[in-house]
Amino acid sequence: MAGSPDHLFNLRNNFYLGSYQAAINNSDLPNLSPDDAVERDCLVYRSYIALGSYQESTISSLKEWLADPAIGNNPILRLIAGIIFTHEEDYNEALKHTNAGGTMELHALNVQIFIKMHRSDYAERQLRVMQQIDEDHTLTQLANAWLNLAVGGSKIQEAYLIFQDFSEKYPMTGLILNGKADAKDPETLANLVVCSLHLGKSSSRYLSQLKLTHPEHILVKRASSAEDSFERAVQSVA
């Protein structure tokens, strides 16, 4: 007997693949069960978080909830905490709440965090757990592509094929385009800056474009800080 239809399948995939506004816009789904309605609302709120729509007071409230033994271990709360602390680049704090895993989304977030911390070995362990649970899950495929990009070398082609498969199945998003090297995506530009430096080539073109189109990107801020420090050092010995 066939199982009941998954009314949230498209909404989840919109969120997983970075189409956050589409997830918000298409969230008005009729006849949801109470459990599905709760999950729908969580996906919508998480889409707002992914778009940066949260305030500092949210972090304060979040810490209070996490300290409450009655709800602090709730997997959705831990996931939201991990997402927000990862956005804030507080990776150790994020891992305090995500590292125990428990859901595919927590495992996938762990992969992201470990990659950001340059610990591809830990990221690979998380990926293996996901593959044992469901090798064909969208998040497992995404995590595999993220890790392949982080490892580099021959793995780059494998990552490209995964994103190519996504682009054929689902609406195009920045996340998919970035995986296929969209030259206008901020993360692609940041990757090009780093790769150019690694190869001993000029990165000024990509950095200038990143400064122009995404002045708040973390790489732009770090580059500006380094330039200011250099100027101060030059002035001190002038």
UniProtKB/TrEMBL annotation:
InterPro entries: Coatomer_esu, TPR-like_helical_dom_sf. GO terms for molecular function: structural molecule activity. Its main location: membrane. Keywords: Cytoplasm, Cytoplasmic vesicle, ER-Golgi transport, Golgi apparatus, Membrane, Protein transport, Transport. GO terms for cellular component: COPI vesicle coat; Golgi membrane. Belongs to the COPE family. The coatomer is a cytosolic protein complex that binds to dilysine motifs and reversibly associates with Golgi non-clathrin-coated vesicles, which further mediate biosynthetic protein transport from the ER, via the Golgi up to the trans Golgi network. The coatomer complex is required for budding from Golgi membranes, and is essential for the retrograde Golgi-to-ER transport of dilysine-tagged proteins. It is found in: Cytoplasmic vesicle, COPI-coated vesicle membrane; Golgi apparatus membrane. GO terms for biological process: endoplasmic reticulum to Golgi vesicle-mediated transport; intra-Golgi vesicle-mediated transport; protein transport; retrograde vesicle-mediated transport, Golgi to endoplasmic reticulum. It is a peripheral membrane protein. This is Coatomer subunit epsilon. The keyword Membrane applies. The keyword Membrane applies.
